[in-house]
Amino acid sequence: MKVGIVGAGHVGLPTAGALARLGHQVTVTDTDAPRIEALGRAEVPFFEPGLQELIAEGIESGRLSFTTDPAPVARESSAVFICVGTPPRVTGEANLVAVEKSALAVARHARGSLIVVEKSTVPTGTSDRLAKALARSKPGVSFQLVSNPEFLREGHAVEDSLHPARVLVGSDSTAALEVMRELYRPIIDGGAEYVETDQRTAELAKHACNAYLALKISFANAMARICELSDADVVSVTKVMGMDPRIGPGHLHAGLGYGGSCFPKDLAAFQRLVERLGYDFPLLGEIKRINDEAVMSVFTKIEEVLWNLEEKRVALLGLAFKPGTDDVRFAPALALARLLVDAGAEVVGYDPVANELAAAEVPGLKTADNVHEALDGAHCAVLCTEWDEFRTLDMTSARSAMAFPIMIDGRNLYESSDMAGAGFTYVPVGRRSVSPAIEDRLLADSL
Ligand code: UGA
């Protein structure tokens, strides 16, 4: 089947690569000419494990191509996927200008009929509005709208696109549903759950999933605060919760909270949507409040161990919003970096892939070329992103590089006993801290 993809980003590229692997003829279009040109040489503009190889494989097979011209995409494709960004407006509402503009740009060249598939996360009702806008723009063409929300995770985008656990397809058009079934046939035959609904339900289901996942994280972070107040252990609390199959273990990891281009934005957009619909749902606001508190709580822990932050050097281990990506949008590490810089600390971050993007976001944030350079002379290290390279960090050499052996573990990556054994003052989230007596004395002497 011939398929068009509009938007060569975090969703569009893995989708394109996966559809090409499934045997479809895929053309990706984007207005960013240098990006399209680079993609023609299989150069992916961001870090996503396995994506470069998938794109190269598609190009090599002759089933994947890139263009800035939407005309052939509209004329030759059975379905066109809209995979453009829906960034938040200042009000929190999703900005749908790119969705409308890009769909109209393709529609202009359509003939006869065209299936337009929304993959971007949008408020429920968007496909109905888009259907009207498209019909108005090109009266002779029959446009069938489909909502096919993306559930991929950054850092696992290739795996999630090739082997999704579930595929959700919503449309009021039975003909479009049939085409989508054919498109996903290999994935359906591979055993993925395949759910068909109307388009409004599919749009709402996507917001419901992300809001609920964010709720789980904030619930775990609220538990962490309660554990700190009652000398209990959040890792055990959430482990026991996750053992109940009705709850499940995913997204119950307490720490610095959620970031990224999805949860913060989607939650805000969902909040504005339900307000507009006239439903009172204060729980959504609480999810965000607890998430903001998670960063503030780690900041307070740093202040507690270092007292004044002026002339103190703080090393941030990890800057990306999570491991496996160079995406720093709404990254908790950057929120923490801003608080530390404002408080007068010297902040040195190290991330295996996100240094450059992070430094561009936070004035005053320095970056180091490797973890040892970041730790050198630091009065405190804060584990912000649980990259594998930090799991295996040699704590003895880390300790000797640092001015004070203090580790604040914003992701509960390490074990207290190991850290105490290495001579660290160790401060995790929602768990008991450890502080070797010798370190207490040194710290007291230096303050
Ligand atoms: C999320 C969803 O997991 C995907 O299903 C969805 O398709 C995607 O949003 C989207 O809407 O496009 P993603 O943002 O890539 O995917 O990452 P997650 O793995 O869900 O992590 C989000 C944030 O939550 C990260 O900052 C992570 O560190 C944090 N997190 C995650 C926790 O703090 N605790 C957890 O237990 C899990």
Provide tags for this entry:
about 450 residues; alpha/beta; Rossmann fold; 2 domains; 20 helices; 14 strands; about 45% helix; about 15% strand; binds uridine-5'-diphosphate-glucuronic acid
Task: Please tell me about this protein's structure.
By secondary structure, the protein is an alpha/beta fold. The protein folds into two domains: 2-197, NAD(P)-binding Rossmann-like Domain (Rossmann fold), CATH 3.40.50.720; 198-447, Rossmann fold (3-Layer(aba) Sandwich). It has 20 helices and 14 strands. It has an eight-stranded mixed β-sheet, with helices on both faces. The protein is elongated, with a radius of gyration of 24 Å.
CATH structural fold name of the largest domain: Rossmann fold
Q: Strand-residue fraction?
A: 5-15%
Broad CATH class of the largest domain: Alpha Beta
Report the biggest beta sheet as strand number plus sense, adding barrel if it closes. 8 strands, mixed
Shape, per Cα inertia axes: elongated
Give the overall pLDDT as a whole number.
95
Given as residue ranges, the uncertain stretches (5+ residues, pLDDT < 50) are none
What CATH architecture of the largest domain would you give?
Answer: 3-Layer(aba) Sandwich
How many beta strands in the DSSP annotation? 14
Distance between the termini: 69 Å
Bound ligand species: uridine-5'-diphosphate-glucuronic acid
Domain tally: 2
At the fourth CATH level, what is the homologous superfamily of the largest domain? NAD(P)-binding Rossmann-like Domain
